[in-house]
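Q: Hi! First time doing this. I have a protein sequence and I read that you can turn it into a structure. Is that right? Here it is:
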Amino acid sequence: MRFDGKIVLITGGAGGIGRATARAFVREGATVVLAGRDVTTLAEAVKEVGPGKADHVVTDVSDASSAAQMVETVVARHSALHVAVNNAGILGAAGPVADIDAAAWNDVLAVNLTGVFLSMKHEIAHMRAHGGGTIVNVASNIGVHGRRPGLAAYAASKAGVSVLTRAAALDHVADGVRINAVSPGASDTPMSLLPGETRADRAERMRTAVPSGRVADTAEVAETILWLASDASSHVVGHDLVVDGGATA
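A: Yes, that's right. Below is the predicted 3D structure, encoded as structure tokens:
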């Protein structure tokens, strides 16, 4: 029960990694608030994770006022915020750099990078005024660690998350706020499926595409996030931990 009595905020909380992370935190005693844009999927996630141990707040992390309201709502409901997991992200339209629509580029950067900045801005402000806390940002092995053709916007945004994490960690470790990132590779979520690909097709592709021969289970990524958020990693600051089965080793 590493997180007994702790209040945890997870953006993108209704998605695969977000939901798995919420389940893991609840198992270890936390109360979890799931943030996202779709109230229906958030309500379904809360029902699965556990009513009474989880609730939700509708949020657009790319909007400054919405990100601020998200943190205010968590604190108003639960009187604290101890851990934040900034997981909200989109893949965006794929294509070569010369063919990327400017609006599509802006959408990816707004959610994946600006959304992490806006979320952290308000999470950190609360934490440093109330005894500290921990933040884990979800980046990707596509970005600083590796690239894929046609995913320039996604790669640039996630590379930005990795660098932003390290900069924020240096800025705020003296405030008692410890900040790290996790960079998953292909995981068992819809984002890792190619257009028209089934899970069986993906499993066959991964046999040779990744040294481990498979995608990560979302629970494996969740456990890494919990470790970074826990006292077990108390001297880990500004680290970007890759969880990709050796794909970028």
